[in-house]
């Protein structure tokens, strides 16, 4: 049995208080535990600021990139062990686990390469030198320098490896130390990742800390030079971002929250063609991968009214072969949801959607038994497809995210109506338009862009090269307005901005040039 510890102030700490158990969600067996209290966050953050910050800021982007490369290598060397933990404590199938662990390695590697390309600078030049006036006597140059505080990262339970690595990669490359706090329920994987990071020897003292325990007064210690990045539900995000000390000190805050992601089937798409098949595959993948516990999973499927039955039939066909059970069993393609609380959330959410007028055409609002698990144990839900026949039915399908293996078919008539329905989500992470019709795709993509952080336009031409809308890529912005939290992370060098202060340096041209000569330029 694993006893998880925190790594704060440069040492491993046991915590105190009543033990919190971590479970295998397929069997409900206890697999690990932690003591949640007694963590001195004030001292831990002070240590990060005084030790980690100066060391990171003294390193060039290339050196920080090399550090990230070592961290990626450390995970790669123990990949199988990490995949096993994701299965035991997260209920992940092998392929779900790879999505998390390989996502962590891939994002660290991407930012390692970005660091190498930024070279010897320790801060960034932002845009060209600007002449102020007719001559070049007075000029200005925007620069981006690392904040002198620490970054606190609060992560959700669904991606313990990727969630830790993707946020840390960006902050560390920017030159800012991190204190990461994974969700306790699945923290075993994050704790093991932390051990491997430390064993790599690549991290300067104080650069990365890990808190496995209660959040306590963690956020009370943040001030003007610190950063707070949160991933989780919109409700918690709204509560935390409104903390008086964060507001009063203007702490940089980034919130990644929930989202009613859309998929729109174009009226031109032929049943059984490549574009149709692409959409069906994406939808089935998003319902079943990680048992639907992906912030980017398709939740609302907008379908021309007259095509609803056909699409439903083909999706049900594919869902009928999904095997839900203990992910360690050969042939099982969908595991349980991660916790007992998640099971309650999913069943309760589906009940509410059904009460609001949606009907279940596959699965339903109930726990089911999982293959290979005896004694009615495990947090299993069947892959569930809901349908509303009237797009005007309630608001719930456009506002309630059921964070589990579920999506809802919604009819629409015109491109304008599809855009209006997507807008009812109040802001989301990603929507995908499946169509060969360029005019339709352009109208929906540009119509819905103000409501999303990412919009995909795909057709038969990308078959074979398309990995689906659920994969968050480090090159592209991740986040979304409104309901999705209003945050932005990843997106290549753009993401560094959260951890850097933009300053316009203006004055005598040659002096400005001399002062800013050491910065790295993006691109
Ligand atoms: P949650 O309840 O909001 O929790 C998220 C994190 O916040 C957890 O680590 C949680 O710890 C912590 N937390 C809760 N209350 C806190 C408080 N008062 N002070 C400090 N930390 C606190 O969300 P969840 O249900 O675990 O996660 C699923 C949600 O996350 C879904 O809605 C999903 O869409 C969203 N999500 C979004 C993204 C994205 O990138 N946009 C990615 C993944 C997931 P405890 O577990 O100890 O409460």
What is the CATH level 1 assignment of the largest domain? Alpha Beta
Mean pLDDT: 96
Structural class: alpha/beta
* Multimeric state: single chain
- List low-confidence stretches: none
Shape label: globular
Strand content: 15-25%
Small molecules bound: NADP nicotinamide-adenine-dinucleotide phosphate
The main sheet comes to: 7 strands, mixed
Would you count the extended β strands for me?
25
Query: Considering DSSP H and I runs of 4 or more, what fraction of the residues is helical?
Result: 25-40%
Architecture blueprint of SSEs:
Layout: E1 2-4, E2 6-8, E3 11-13, E4 20-23, E5 30-34, H1 41-58, H2 61-77, H3 79-90, H4 94-118, E6 124-131, E7 138-146, E8 151-154, H5 160-174, E9 178-181, H6 187-199, E10 208-210, E11 227-231, H7 234-241, H8 244-249, E12 252-256, E13 261-265, H9 274-288, E14 298-304, H10 308-319, H11 340-355, E15 359-362, E16 367-368, E17 380-381, E18 384-387, H12 396-399, E19 406-412, H13 415-423, E20 428-434, H14 438-448, E21 452-458, E22 477-478, E23 489-490, E24 500-508, H15 509-515, E25 520-521
Parallel strand pairs: 1-5, 6-25, 8-9, 8-11, 9-10, 11-12, 13-14, 13-20, 14-19, 18-19, 20-21
Antiparallel strand pairs: 2-3, 4-5, 6-7, 7-24, 15-18, 16-17, 22-23
Describe this structure in words.
This protein has 523 residues and is α/β, with parallel strands linked by helices. The protein has two domains: 35-257 and 487-521, Aldehyde Dehydrogenase, Chain A, domain 1 (3-Layer(aba) Sandwich); 261-475, Aldehyde Dehydrogenase, Chain A, domain 2 (3-Layer(aba) Sandwich). It is built from 15 helices and 25 strands. It has helices at residues 41-58, 61-77, 79-90, 94-118, 160-174, 187-199, 234-241, 244-249, 274-288, 308-319, 340-355, 396-399, 415-423, 438-448, 509-515; strands spanning 2-4, 6-8, 11-13, 20-23, 30-34, 124-131, 138-146, 151-154, 178-181, 208-210, 227-231, 252-256, 261-265, 298-304, 359-362, 367-368, 380-381, 384-387, 406-412, 428-434, 452-458, 477-478, 489-490, 500-508, 520-521. Helix 3 (79-90) packs across helix 4. It is globular, with a radius of gyration of 24 Å. NADP nicotinamide-adenine-dinucleotide phosphate (NAP) binds next to helix 7.
């Amino acid at each position: 049995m694993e006893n998880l510890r925190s790594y704060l102030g440069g040492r491993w700490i046991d915590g105190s208080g009543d033990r919190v158990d971590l479970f295998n969600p397929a069997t409900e067996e206890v697999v690990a535990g932690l003591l949640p209290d007694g963590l001195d966050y004030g001292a831990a953050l002070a240590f990060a600021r005084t030790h980690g910050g100066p060391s990171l800021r003294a390193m060039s982007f290339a050196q920080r990139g090399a550090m990230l490369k070592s961290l990626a290598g450390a995970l790669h060397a123990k990949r199988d062990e990490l995949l096993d933990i994701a299965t035991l404590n997260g209920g992940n199938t092998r392929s779900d686990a790879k999505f998390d662990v390989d996502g962590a390695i891939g994002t660290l590697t991407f930012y390692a390469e970005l660091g190498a390309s930024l070279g010897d600078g320790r801060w960034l030049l932002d845009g060209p030198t600007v002449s102020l006036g007719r001559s070049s006597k007075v000029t200005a140059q925007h620069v981006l320098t690392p904040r002198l505080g620490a970054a606190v990262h609060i992560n959700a339970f669904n991606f313990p490896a990727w969630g830790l690595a993707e946020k840390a990669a960006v902050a560390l490359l920017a030159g800012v130390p991190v204190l990461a706090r994974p969700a306790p329920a699945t923290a075993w994987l994050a704790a093991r990742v932390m051990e491997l990071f430390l064993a790599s020897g690549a991290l300067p003292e104080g650069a990365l800390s890990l808190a496995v325990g209660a959040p306590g007064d963690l956020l009370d210690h943040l001030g003007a030079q610190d950063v707070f990045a949160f991933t989780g539900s919109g409700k918690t995000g709204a509560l935390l971002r409104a903390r008086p000390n964060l507001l009063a000190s203007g702490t940089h805050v980034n919130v990644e929250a929930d989202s009613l992601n859309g998929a729109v089937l174009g009226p031109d798409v032929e049943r059984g063609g490549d574009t149709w098949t692409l959409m069906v595959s994406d939808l089935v993948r998003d319902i079943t991968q990680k048992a639907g516990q992906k912030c980017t999973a398709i939740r609302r499927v907008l379908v021309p009214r007259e095509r609803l039955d056909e699409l439903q039939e083909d999706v049900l066909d594919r869902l009928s072969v999904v095997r839900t059970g203990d992910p360690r069993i050969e042939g099982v393609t969908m595991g349980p949801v991660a916790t007992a609380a998640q099971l309650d959330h999913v069943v309760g959410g589906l009940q509410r959607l059904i009460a609001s007028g949606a009907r279940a055409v596959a699965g339903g609002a109930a726990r089911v038994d999982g293959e290979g698990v005896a004694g009615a144990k495990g947090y299993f839900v069947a892959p569930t497809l809901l349908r509303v026949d009237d797009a005007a039915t309630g608001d719930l399908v456009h506002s309630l995210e059921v964070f589990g293996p579920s999506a809802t078919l919604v009819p629409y008539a015109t491109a304008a109506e599809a855009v209006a329905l997507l807008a009812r989500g109040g802001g989301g992470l990603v929507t995908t338009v499946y169509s060969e019709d360029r005019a339709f795709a352009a109208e929906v993509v540009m119509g819905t862009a103000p409501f999303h952080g990412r919009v995909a336009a795909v057709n038969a031409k990308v078959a074979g090269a398309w990995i689906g809308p659920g994969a968050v890529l480090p090159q592209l912005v991740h986040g979304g307005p409104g309901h999705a939290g209003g945050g932005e992370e990843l997106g290549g060098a753009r993401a560094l901005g959260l951890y850097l202060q933009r300053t316009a340096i203006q004055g005598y041209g040659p002096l400005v040039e001399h002062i800013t000569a050491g910065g790295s330029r993006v691109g």
